[in-house]
């Protein structure tokens, strides 16, 4: 058993609670400081891809996730104007090939399951604790009310507008806001009662619509109790309404009347769905992406970033939460290879070295996916649709168990975070796989790592 450390996690979102579970299971003493007064999560379905499920399965609560999962086999994509099928992204085969499926549960349920598990394991989650300043050298945290907290390691899981990031970088780095996401919740009964939308509720697969400068992803949730629809609008779209300066993610009401106008060129099904949305059930989120950061760790090596605080990306490949999950698994493997608190900086350097290239590659892939989804009608859009239709129809890319997996997304969804971390740690730390040097980081750390 490696040394046990006291760890403060800033932020009780998916990343922070995941870090708390993972590190507590390794024997560390973890406290989560969350600024909100209670567990708060709004939002529609979150896709949990297989590589994240593989990690969650080591936390002793995966069966609870499976109970809430409503995904079946595929994501169907329709053309906005006439509702014709453009593509069908199959993931029914993933469980067979990767050992885990893609799950679809609501953000609310996801966070609640993590929170419950963290409490069961003895994690202290303190609400109403807004982190104000951080002394990275100690390291310590001062809350907005003046209370002081010290630890061996501080993990910044405080999201896209991270305060911890400013400490780590010594400067403010703001995300680049690209699009606006509107999230609407509709009652499942209302959807079932209308002949135009009843068929959608009869099958739980997620689905979406692509349009110039816009796209939509939706699915029934909570076993048909509700239906969530996320509508994305490009910042440059000519009908983008002004967003209030003080708009806060998921807290600000979106203008559903405006939204109906923006999507009035869509097929009748989508228009009917928007007609069913109550004003208070339409919230907005500004989609932002961080540039690649120069580092994820403070000068002392004792303050580190995970999740959106380190690599916020747009949601177009549905990977943000999965990446936070990968982060915490790798970080914990790195901590397991050191033998004293003075080596925490070395472990954190290893974490950054292993994680950063992959996170940046996924961020770039996600950005491209957004551009591709929003092509204006024309040549590029036709080619995109043809390609999507081809792979949906032929199923050529779908791998079989035991075969070499050539599926284009194998590097994303077939990734083994712990396996990769341990291979790299064996290489970085040499013979017995444990850090034996103190307070120095060899130059070779960044070389030759795969993404
Ligand atoms: C529309 C949309 C759809 C998405 N769909 C998917 C999907 O299908 N699959 C997927 O994997 N990902 C998806 N994502 C991305 C995913 O939601 C995020 O990447 C993930 O939630 C990031 O988790 P986090 O814990 O790093 O940050 P957050 O969830 O932002 O949590 C940060 C926490 O820190 C707290 N905090 C902030 N500042 C302080 C402070 N100073 N002191 C104390 N606490 C603080 C906040 O209150 C919050 O609780 C989607 C995102 C969006 C916008």
Automatic annotation (TrEMBL):
Superkingdom per UniProt: Eukaryota
Record Gene3D superfamilies: FAD/NAD(P)-binding domain (3.50.50.60)
Residue ranges of every copy of the FAD-binding domain listed in the record: 6-363
Protein name (Swiss-Prot/TrEMBL): FAD/NAD(P)-binding domain-containing protein
PANTHER family on file: MONOOXYGENASE, PUTATIVE (AFU_ORTHOLOGUE AFUA_2G01950)-RELATED
Annotated family: Belongs to the paxM FAD-dependent monooxygenase family.
Keywords in alphabetical order: FAD, Flavoprotein, Monooxygenase, Oxidoreductase
InterPro entries associated with the record: FAD-bd (IPR002938), FAD-dep_Monooxygenase_BioMet (IPR050493), FAD/NAD-bd_sf (IPR036188)
Presence of the UniProt keyword Flavoprotein in the record: yes
One GO MF term attached to the UniProt entry: FAD binding
């Amino acid at each position: 058993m490696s040394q046990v450390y006291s760890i403060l996690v800033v932020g009780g979102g998916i990343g922070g609670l995941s870090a708390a579970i993972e590190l507590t299971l390794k024997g560390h003493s973890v406290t989560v400081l969350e600024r909100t007064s209670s567990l708060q999560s709004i939002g529609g379905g979150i896709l949990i891809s297989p590589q994240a499920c593989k990690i969650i399965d080591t936390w002793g609560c995966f069966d609870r996730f499976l109970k809430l999962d409503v995904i079946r086999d595929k994501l169907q994509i329709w053309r906005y104007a006439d509702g014709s099928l453009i593509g069908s992204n199959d993931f029914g085969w993933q469980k067979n090939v990767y050992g885990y499926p893609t799950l679809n549960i609501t953000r609310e349920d996801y966070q609640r399951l993590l929170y419950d598990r963290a409490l069961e394991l003895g994690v202290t989650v303190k609400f109403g604790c807004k982190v104000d300043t951080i002394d990275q050298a100690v390291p310590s945290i001062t809350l907005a009310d003046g209370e002081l907290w010290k630890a061996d390691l501080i993990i910044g899981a405080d999201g896209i507008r991270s305060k911890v990031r400013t400490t780590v970088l010594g400067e403010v780095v703001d995300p680049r806001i690209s699009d606006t996401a509107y999230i609407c919740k509709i009652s499942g009964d209302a959807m079932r009662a209308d002949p135009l939308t009843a068929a959608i509720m009869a099958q739980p697969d997620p689905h979406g619509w692509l349009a110039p400068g816009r796209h939509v992803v939706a699915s029934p949730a909570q076993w048909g109790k509700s239906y969530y629809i996320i509508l994305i609008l490009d910042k440059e779209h000519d009908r983008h309404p002004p967003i209030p300066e003080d708009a806060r993610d998921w807290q600000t009401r979106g203008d559903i009347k405006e939204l109906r106008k923006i999507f009035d060129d869509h097929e009748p099904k989508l228009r009917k769905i928007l007609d069913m949305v109550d004003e208070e059930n339409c919230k907005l989120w500004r989609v932002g992406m961080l540039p690649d950061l120069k580092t994820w760790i403070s000068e002392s090596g004792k303050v580190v970033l995970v999740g959106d605080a380190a690599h916020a990306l747009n949601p177009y490949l549905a990977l943000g939460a999965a990446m936070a999950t990968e982060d915490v698994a790798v970080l914990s493997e790195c901590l397991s290879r050191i033998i004293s608190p003075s080596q925490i900086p070395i472990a954190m350097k290893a974490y950054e070295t292993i994680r950063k290239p992959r996170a940046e590659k996924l961020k770039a892939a996600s950005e491209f996916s957004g551009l591709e989804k929003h092509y204006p009608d024309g040549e590029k859009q036709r080619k995109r649709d043809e390609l999507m239709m081809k792979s949906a129809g032929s199923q050529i890319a779908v791998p079989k168990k035991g075969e070499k997996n050539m599926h284009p997304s194998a590097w994303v969804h077939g990734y083994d975070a712990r396996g990769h971390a341990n291979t790299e740690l064996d290489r970085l730390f040499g013979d017995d796989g444990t850090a034996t040097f103190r307070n120095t980081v060899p130059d070779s750390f960044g070389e030759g790592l795969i993404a």
